[in-house]
Amino acid sequence: MTHPFLDLAPLSAERFAAIEDRVARLLDTRQDVVITQGEALLPLEGAIRATATPETIALNVITGPYGQTFGNWLRDCGATVHDLAVPFHTAVTADQIREALNEHPEIDFVSLVHAEAATGNTNPVAEIGEVVRAHGALFYLDAVASVGAEPVLPDAWGVDLCVIGAQKAMGGPAGVSAVSVSERAWTRMTNNPHAPRRSYLSLLDWKERWIDTGRKALLHAPAQLEMLGLEACVARIEAEGLDTLMSRHRAAAASTRAGALALGGGLEPYVHDPREAAPVATTLRTPAGVNASDLVARVLAADPALPLAAGGGPLAKEMIRVNHYGTDATPGTVRACLTGLGTAMAEQGLAVDVVGALGTAERA
């Protein structure tokens, strides 16, 4: 008995390359784009291990948990790391980056997360890119959460290593990711004797055995279902239009934020300035005495399909995350989340206005 998910014809190198080309068009980049066969942590780690050496002097920007992870990887490669940490309820500024680079002019590598879905902030990459480019450092960017929800433009912003994943705003599968690589990033890897080779983490393997040979033979059997899922989600974005998709995310974020403020009960946005709030997810701070994990559990017990989560680690008691990305970036999802939160808060004796919140969200 045949099965549409299991009995598939092999994915050809030609089709694999065509999917890479469509991802490159999505990023409006002329850089090489490598689709990696795993969740985005694969190219995120691979790109650092390919370019960082004991001689590397890095500026690692921390606006959430992923920035902390990147600093750990850089140190593991022997790099000297200067961390620039800002409160998780805000974004880093280009002036802060410039000041750090002026203080440590020897810095030759800058790592940054574009949008931190875990904390709900987003950073001004276009402005930061100008500063990093003027300094001459290699620019590494995690755009996994932001791609599809806001502009991601590696060429225009001077990003040398731009990693994306399909599972958030793109509305695609989690098990496949991609990285765009500039020529000078390839040069840095080629000159790095510590860069992984003949390894699943190796970007150089893809450069030497895939790109340089004309993309005729794949390195290994591709993750077929994930590749077909990526192809399908890119096709869906092309049909909807990237600008329309980003507009849908902006609208979801604006209505969630406005509705949460109108809901009352002490619920408030975790990211203070709306200009620094990511369109992919809205984070909310619970009022004193209300445990965020318990509140989310109560909401999900009534409707398990809602895209709600408590914050991670130490934020689990005080932060709620509304993940309005991909197919959940809709007015219906926003209304359902606000209704669920309001109902659960009312059950805990908090004074909330669900009707008012829904009306405010709709107007926003």
Structural commentary:
By secondary structure, the protein is an alpha/beta fold. The chain has two domains: 13-240, Aspartate Aminotransferase, domain 2; 242-363, Aspartate Aminotransferase, domain 1 (Alpha-Beta Complex). 43% of the residues lie in helices and 15% in strands. It has 13 helices and 13 strands. The protein has helices at 13-26, 41-51, 65-76, 94-103, 125-135, 154-157, 183-190, 203-211, 224-240, 242-263, 292-302, 331-347, 354-363, and strands at 32-36, 57-62, 80-85, 109-113, 115-116, 121-122, 138-142, 161-165, 177-181, 268-269, 282-285, 308-310, 319-322. The strands form three sheets. The chain has a seven-stranded mixed sheet with strand order 1-9-8-7-4-2-3, with helices on both faces. α4 packs parallel to α5, α10 (242-263) packs parallel to α12 (331-347) and α11 crosses α12. The chain is globular. 49% of the residues are buried. The mean pLDDT is 97.
Overview in brief:
Helix content is 43%, strand content 15%. The chain is α/β, with parallel strands linked by helices and 364 residues long.
